[in-house]
Amino acid sequence: MTTVADVPRVRSELGVIFTDVFEYDEPLQASTSPDDVPRWDSLSHIALVRVLEDTFEITLSMDEMLEIRSVADIEAVLGRHGV
Amino acid sequence: MANSPALHSPHSSPRGARTRQLDTALIEALLLDVTAALRQRTLVSCLDWSAANAHQIARLLDGASCAGRAPTWLLQLALTAGHPLSEEHLEDLSPEARALSLLNERADACLPVALEKQLAGRCRTCALEAPIVAALVGKLTQGAHRDLACRLALAIWSERPDAIKPVKHELEAFVAMMPPATLRVTGFSTTDTLAGALRRACSVSGLNARIEMAPHGAVQVELMDSRAHCDALILLLDPQSQLEVDWRLSAAERLDSYQERVDALCSAIDVYCRRSSTPLLVNTLPAAIGPHVGHFDAVDPAGAAYMTRQMNERLARLASTLPALQLIDADYAMRGLAPDARHDQRLWLYGRIAYSEPAVRKLAMAFAQAMSARARGPAKVLALDFDDTLWGGVFGDDGVSRLACGDDPPGNAFRAFQHECLRLKAQGILLVGLSKNNEDVLEVFGSHTSMVLRKDDFVATAINWAPKGENIRRLSRELDLGLDSFVFLDDNPHEREAMRILCPEVFVPELPADPAARATWLRQLGATWALRPTEEDQRRTDMYRAVRDAKALQANSGTYEDYLLALRQTLTVETLTERTLARAAQLHQRTNQYNLTTRRFGEAELAGQMATKGSAVVLLGSAKDRLGDHGIIAASVIAIDGSAARIDSFLMSCRVIARSVETAFLGSIIKYLLERGVERIEGEYKPTPKNDVVRDFYCKNGFLLQARDSDGTERWLWTVSESTIPVTPYVTVTWSTP
Predict the structure, then answer these.
(1) Both B313 and B390 in a single domain?
(2) CB contacts < 8 Å between A and B, how many?
(3) Which of B33, B136, B204, B303 could form a disulfide with B293 if both were Cys (CB 3.0 to 4.6 A apart)?
């Protein structure tokens, strides 16, 4: 069973990260995905992963890199890492 | 500063209110006993000192002061946390620290002109205190110092890429003023990350670079056949793709196979350099991070270290005869980064990205420096101070015999430094002497027994008591060399600052305070200059060898067509099955460039097509050549209706672009359809921002244009009566039946 991260806090940090990495300023929804974020492509996905790793001081596995397709996925992964 | 632990990690996000409360409580606790607290340097460095008030900072610094001075790391910590420092604390700090303190005191403060000039000068020295500068950049954008903020942010970019953020918008305009250059990038791995870093790295070196990406993975085409115009072509080599070994082969076959790969690359480079004068920048293979053959890795021909050496030796020999070819030493470029941190295996598996982000940044810096060094040309003058720079001690006070320079410490440090100066002179650098002394100082070179340099090694000297800036201007006129070709080395920080203000064109690096560090430092500094040893003797052997190599290469392959023939490519075509479903879907999802319609068929849809017997077919192609097996690289979904068919998708992985595989695949599709009674085949081209490479695809393969829609979508037709089946001599097609 995975726990979902402290959502409001994590969500606001993700907002900062999305502005940084994707220059995306809209409010984030759990369902926000590459379809909503124009600059979220396979290449900037790597930048996203790196910033997540730096910010939350975690290391994502290959599976987790592939698993992340939305904000909800990010929060689930972070929750699993105890963020 | 460099060893202060985790001061501000990049991208550190704003701390929450609760964390800030905790910081405040901890700060109050630490101030109870500052002496004890300073022993917990890691803890002190981790706290958010911006939560402290001016009174608390004063208590901290006073408590930590020994003989009126607090430790430098603590002063820097207070500065980066936004606090101003008093004049007594600022006394020995860097210009950037002084500037930050001013701005911490008043956000709209205007920096004194002298300080601004000093900072601009230090931007070129690679010796800025990065955490201080990062904080300074954020503050400077609020005032009238935008250009300086941009310059500072660029100067620390390779260390602190996040420092760019506050000046992101200003930077666009700042970089647009720089001379433009177009770079093309190619490689065996994904080069997108390098392209991004290169643009920045070029702006650090003063170039407004436009980066063009060569088609993915198509190194041979790029080198042997491309007509693209650019100022430099950059070829990124990576160990992952170059050191691939097929362990099913016998030892002898493996050796041949690797030799062929090295030959193919070197011959393509050779062809490029002979048909184009555009510089080609190639990095060497960095030291392998894992051996193939344990402790015998450097000795056994199958060893990763052995193979790396072999490749690098061949490249070096090639570079010695081809002036357009410039090698970038990858190990040197990535120094300071642990070998294990140079690659991220996840990135390689995720998207064939061969180098980690910090590694890419360092490589990009090296490529950009080589570019600008080439542009500047090799003319350089080293202007040297004498006392405490070339020897330890002061001639006027100590006399000749007591000057430190010799075989024993501390004099051997100065001797080593003179050796480096002599090395540079041997490589064509002019030496001039700039000393505040009486003329008789020159007798040191004759009468001191251990001097390496002699009086006649200096092309000119200016020995007097006038400001060194004036002297260097006079020498510049006398030698008819621009001030920007001078490098000034002086142990005295005040002389350096004065030079930066008086002659901003002169490059004034920060000579390390410790003489022991200077010889290596000078070697690293000189590594960014375009140098070529001039002595013919030294080159004769290399030239002789390289001529021999070139002959062997030309015998191997000359034109791109010869290369394609020698590749012995085969394409295996098959219809979609359960086994290949996932790969077919993945190709549809991922392929952006070589994709005619960019319809993203998923697994379910493809399975649906597979089930409709007769009215649709999905064909897949796998490619193989003498250098390796590429697996399934092409896919096409075709709808069939009696004697008419429509190609709904046609796509191919970039790995095999421009090797005629696409022609072979299309030919196979047409043959397949003809056998099933189809006479008319409709093809569609839907333009996207990324698929320009296939614009002419149907035209080149005998289709006729039927219509062009308002959104640019084109309909093409192939008919038995009017068209011929596309064929290619470079690919052998076989069919695989499930």
Answers:
(1) no
(2) 34
(3) B303
Judged by CB atoms closer than 8 Å, whether chains meet at A46 and B14 is answered as no
Q: What is the CATH classification number for the domain harbouring B428?
A: 3.40.50.1000
Taking an 8 Å cut-off on Cβ atoms, the answer to whether B11 and A54 are in contact is yes
Domain of residue B294, residue span? 178-376
What CATH number should be reported for the domain holding residue B595?
3.40.630.30
**Cβ neighbours, 10 Å, residue B483:** 18
Q: What residues of B are in contact with residue A66 (Cβ under 8 Å)?
A: 350
A 10 A CB-CB count for B350 gives 17
- Which domains are assigned to chain A? 7-80 (1.10.1200.10)
Query: Per-residue pLDDT tens for B203-234?
Result: 998 899 999 999 887 899 999 987 888 999 99
User: Exposed/middle/buried for A27, CB within 10 Å: 0-12, 13-18, 19+?
Assistant: exposed
Do B388 and B345 fall within a single domain?
A: no
Assign B323 to helix, strand or coil: coil
- Say yes or no: B249 and B274 in one domain: yes
> Nearest CA to B118 among B101, B94, B136?
B94
CATH of the domain at B309: 3.40.50.1110
Q: Are residues B359 and B390 in the same domain?
A: no
**Does ipTM top 0.85?**
yes
Q: Please tell me which of the candidates B9, B12, B347 has its beta carbon nearest to residue A46.
A: B347
Residue B546 CA to residue B561 CA, distance in Å, equals 24
Q: Provide, as residue numbers in chain B, all residues whose Cβ is less than 8 Å from the Cβ of A51.
A: 11
Residue type, B269: I
Nearest-Cα distance to chain B for A2, in Å, is 23
Task: Kindly determine whether residue A54 and residue B10, on different chains, have CB atoms separated by under 8 Å.
Answer: yes
Q: Looking at the partner chain, which of A17, A54, A65 has a beta carbon nearest the beta carbon of B346? A: A65
Unique residue bearing structure tokens 């052995």: B306
